[in-house]
Amino acid sequence: MKHLHxxxxxxxxxxxxxxxxxxxxxxxxxxxxxxxAQIAELHRQGVQVILVSSGAVGAxxxxxxxSGNLPPVAARQVLAATxxxxxxxxxxxxxxxxxxxxxxxxxxxxxxxDRLHYLNMRTxxxxxxxxxxxxxxxxxxxxxxxxxxxxxxxxxxxxxASMMDVDGYIILSHVDGLFDLKTxxxxxxxxxxxxxxxxxQYINPGKSEFGRGGMLTKCHIAQKLSRLGITVHIANGxxxxxxxxxxxxxxxxxxxxxxxxxxxxxxxxxxxxxxxKGEVVVNEGARNALTAAERANSLLPVGIESVQGTFLKGxxxxxxxxxxxxxxxxxxxxxxxxTRMLIGQKGQKPLIHYDYLYIIQ
Length: 361
Hints:
Blueprint: E1 10-15, H1 17-20, H2 29-44, E2 48-53, H3 56-61, H4 72-96, E3 102-107, H5 115-130, E4 134-139, H6 152-163, E5 168-173, E6 191-192, H7 207-210, H8 215-227, E7 231-236, H9 242-247, E8 254-256, H10 265-269, E9 278-282, H11 284-291, E10 304-309, E11 316-321, E12 326-331, H12 336-342, E13 357-359
Parallel strand pairs: 1-2, 1-5, 2-4, 3-4, 5-7, 6-8, 9-11
Antiparallel strand pairs: 7-8, 9-10, 11-12, 12-13
């Protein structure tokens, strides 16, 4: 392997089901052998790797013939529970051939909603990496129900990338990246700045690309991470040597360029959409102050117009404008009851301090 790209000391690699399964939906051992060999090579170069791998349901289909009339969620649970064993066993054997130990971590979306639980999970990942063990992560489909499910493993891997302060996040898909559909020549877009919006212009309007785990989802997650200071790559996982190419700085596929890194609680709060316990509606003055690029501002009671829901100190709350636009998310410094008592008052402590505030750009 040639000289590694110097900024990538710790990375998350997300592998999609369509990368590691064949046309029949069975695990593709040839592709898996290539990927594990490349990850082992990165390990030898001193790069810490967290692998988020789909494929449990696909693996389950190759060993279980479902009988009876199971509801879709139950069928997915059965396939995932049986297939996860096959998937992790395959990874364990392939990594062992390179002298590496594998750890299995199964999570649900709820595992990220509690700050203490989140920190405990981060400690676990850090300890595994310190021991030079490869964490292989997947959604716990056996217990996840619709409202607790991630938007495919793209969302899960994005949360882990943010949580672990990684340098690079690599999404391995079945396509080479994003393509320029406006010019008509279909050329691949090599770089996307953090300010980019309207990703529809780069995506063919196929159902799979806009659904759960589609390319539009990947773009939105990639953009959010790039704004937190993480470089994101979308590339074809079936391309031989794809990880080597990325780590050598060759930039295959599409790269989402990062902004200045953001650390600490802001990274967690940036991914708490859907986990909020309540909402505050702010006036136009507070909206302008919070979204001002030139300075950092906390949310003060004087700018709050109304409070929705019930929340306590330490809960995540949503911040919205009077027209319904979601401005951001933050960690409440006191309860909804106290907030209602302080609405519109000057000289009060912030409801959300800037250090615990994430504003949607």
